[in-house]
């Protein structure tokens, strides 16, 4: 039995997950964060190769002028699929691979807060990736660009299934991401080892935390924007219908309110990886760690305030242009601070030139270039020449490849030994690095020129006398250099897995907790929850100085006996089945509505089974974390924060479009205020009944609990009845969702709210049925509490809608 | 190792120098031929030099640190565990902020100078319609309608009002200024004064469908006399035709052409470009081909073959018919 | 069992009182839209009243007043950010016509 440098006994399994069964079924039902990480990684890499092939075809077509390798239609689909694939199916899930594998290890936990939801996120992601790429099989891949501007995406200008595939895939992927984000926020806040205060967390974990908030809050606006597009295409609404009074800028705003935080979602994990890799191989702590934390948080927060710098050519007016220009320049400050802190980390160090270090340093240099071209774009006058040209294509690839991908490769080379128990060849690794570094710069540096020489983006060919020939050819050659680098990596990986040297627990003399357990870790991650001695806890454990517990914080861990009392979450097949149901529903959306019904019902059934799977498992009753909060309660509040963005976007659109309808009726002509006042009162009273229900459950009063739970649901049904009456009445008066802009915004907003009420009613009736069967006890109070939080929130949204939609003139 | 690293830094440097030779590409953004383009280039220059400077500083910083602090047999295995330095943090927050201020000030000035709140009173007004995939230009005060080639007088303020009957496009003639989107439902404007006579190339810069790449245009900046002559020529009725051209006119008049195109005195369709003075234009199909009997005939025979998904269908003309119509169109000056 | 309550607990009486206030404010809201005199300030007035209802439900029914501050931050942070973005979106699409074009 081997031991780590601190003398702890370790396992030394030879292969990935050897301590767990390795059947296909065990992988399909796994809830182990390490296995889920590997699933993400393998799938993401496959999609990355697909996106890479799409890129090579693009570059081959552009290698010479007037080329006919692919048709215009094929080319337009290639760049759309390449962008969508690389962002959503490659970079994000490669990041997720690291989030899943490492977060519990880095914070000294054994898994994430909700292991089955974690698995569910993966399977839903896979479903989304399959939906997007199924469009290739039907010959109708999306061809409108990865940011699909309306109204090119309308049914009139894009009549085929292409855009529909795109919409469904993105919506599915959004569900996966937001669900995982909530999971990781609760995990990081509530499951840290005793003694690990927030400021003692590794910087990578901080970056991950910021990213999860960005995901949870930035996806709802694009969800709403895509819902608008879907309703326009399927149900004849007018959200992006100019003739009906719509503003085409709305799509751009909604897309980029998501799209700009998305780029920080893509890069902050890479920043976090660099902040782990550089200190390890310089043998010094990260310089200015608190500043690195604050700058990451600031970048995340201010990232919500710059989105219209993607719209400088759209004609927003000089005041808006100026405001977003200044905000964008401000964001460059915390970003630049990071670059300097990384340099200071290396300064005075004892630098070991491993492959991981090469990629991390590569990021520092290449992201500087990408960031500087970004600052150029921040100036609207200059941007008016550069945007929509190859200059911005150069910029985005410098930050996404030079930044995100180089960071990911640094992480891959760094954590490969931990995840596989094998070492990669450093020789092949460095060869791959240089091929990629040279190939990448050859591919994309000339694109700055192409942009400066006026080459627009998204053109399938160009004329021979534009002066763009040499740079395009060089760029194509560089692209194949990148491909070669990836091939070398794959060879390296294959050889390592087949017969690579076994990796010790701590091959790099690391600083953080993952190096304290075996490579790969046992299923339970740590035999004993590690003691925490400060930031870089493992380094301090090895070399000092060891800091005591944080004043006022939790005591140091008390060692359990090895394996005693460790509860590993049981595998479950419900996540796989839920994702399958969603896949069937999406296929139905593209083919026949019957499949939507089948898929929907299947999904609901599987969700209920998942929810009740551990209703009576003793270890699941108590889920309190280090902040003294229940995981489930915390997760519901995070979800409600996300819902603020969802409903906020819907309400803002309603108000933005108010008064722009070309035909009637207008709100004051059709609303029945007295009736709606009654339904509002009804919903408010239902909240009263809900708190009474919770109080009853908490004190174990079965009869009262049944009464108030049913009462709440009943009042909810009354509200829905009022709404059904209102809708029917409107339709009889000729006011439908297709009638005008007011109809579109009103019915979608209140319809979605009504859907939320209906889901709440279903939830409450389920709890009522459990209570009737004597299966809802005081120990289940938290489950009722979170249903109540959801219910009250739905009530609170109605309070806002009643005022802003019905009452305000 | 360090020499290899230097070589790697040299590769992009070489590309930089080689690429630097050819700035005068037709669509070049760094050659300014109007007040708008010059204002932009002024800010572009400042930001470029600042960026290059910072990139060089950081680049050399990285290289130096890697060489100087490389692990060596003699150096201590574990170096001093320095955690931070507050003064440094303040310094490298304030200095970039000041640099950004230096960029922001001219930026804001140019924004407001180049985007007047109201349309300038003394300008020549042109309404630009962006179609899939061609450009329509109307001069309301001069009562001239043309397509794909825009004439403007040198030294006179011009205001383009951009309108879109179908999807979003973007009007971009780099030497005359930055781009502005054509957004259906909105009126965007570009105002500029060209300062040098000549021909300037432009292209649509917002993805607008299958043939987005085939939506180019030319702007011809005329001396005041040449512009006046051009306007007169545009408003003249087409001359009488003889021979092959007359044959072509006859074919045109009895074909579906008349449903989409206007030729003064012959037809009044508005779905496609106005062809009344087609022959006075040097390019066809939105700037993607030069005008000659061969190219025009090839276009007439099968437009989607030259411009994928073009709305103009192949009309089943024989080679002879196509050449006749081409001859007719080229004579329309 | 759950240790997150900071000692004080709302009573049924508190809940009933909140329900009463919610009803009254709702009635007031509906009432003021018919009062001509208030027309110039009707929008901020209505927003203030609905914000009050929102707060009452969040603080008492959703228990934020008695729970850990962490939960308040997790919810109120996004709430404020979302509200800011909504206002920005409305401004940019000309809903307020604050900035002339």
What percent of residues of chain A are in strands? under 5%
C-alpha-based Rg of chain A, rounded: 27 Å
Order of helices and strands of chain A: HHHHHHHHHHHHHHHHHHHHHHH
Ends distance of chain A = 76 Å
Q: Characteristics of this structure?
A:
heterotrimer, A: 809 residues, mainly alpha, globular, C: 101 residues, 3 helices, disordered N terminus
Topology of this protein?
The complex is a heterotrimer of chains A (809), B (333) and C (101).
Chain A: H1 24-28, H2 33-62, H3 72-107, H4 115-137, H5 162-190, H6 203-235, H7 249-282, H8 289-302, H9 318-346, H10 355-377, H11 380-386, H12 390-420, H13 426-452, H14 469-499, H15 537-543, H16 574-590, H17 593-612, H18 631-656, H19 667-670, H20 673-698, H21 702-732, H22 741-772, H23 781-807
Helix pairs in contact in A: 2-3, 2-4, 2-14, 3-4, 3-5, 3-7, 3-12, 4-5, 4-16, 5-6, 5-16, 5-18, 6-7, 6-8, 6-18, 7-9, 7-10, 7-12, 8-9, 9-10, 10-12, 10-13, 12-13, 13-14, 16-17, 18-22, 18-23, 20-21, 20-23, 21-22, 22-23
Chain B: H1 2-19, H2 35-68, H3 86-114, E1 124-131, E2 134-139, E3 144-147, E4 149-153, E5 157-163, E6 169-171, E7 180-182, E8 188-193, E9 198-203, E10 216-222, H4 224-235, H5 243-254, H6 257-260, E11 262-263, E12 267-268, E13 283-284, E14 289-290, H7 293-301, H8 303-306, H9 319-330
Parallel strand pairs in B: 1-5, 4-10
Antiparallel strand pairs in B: 1-2, 2-3, 5-8, 6-7, 9-10, 11-12, 13-14
Chain C: H1 12-32, H2 42-61, H3 69-92
Helix pairs in contact in C: 1-2
Task: Outline the structure in words.
The complex is a heterotrimer of chains A (809), B (333) and C (101). Chain A is mainly alpha-helical. Chain A is built from 23 helices and no strands. In chain A, α3 crosses α12, α4 packs antiparallel against α5 and α10 runs parallel beside α13. The N terminus of chain A is likely disordered. Chain B is an alpha+beta fold and 333 residues long. Helices cover 40% and strands 19% of the residues of chain B. Chain C has 101 residues and is mainly α. Chain C is 64% helix and 0% strand. In chain C, α1 runs antiparallel to α2. Chain C starts with 11 loop residues before the first helix and ends in a 9-residue tail after the last helix. The N terminus of chain C is likely disordered. The chains are: A mainly alpha (809), B alpha+beta (333), C mainly alpha (101). At the A-B interface, α3, α8, α9, α10 and α11 of A face α1, α2 and α3 of B.
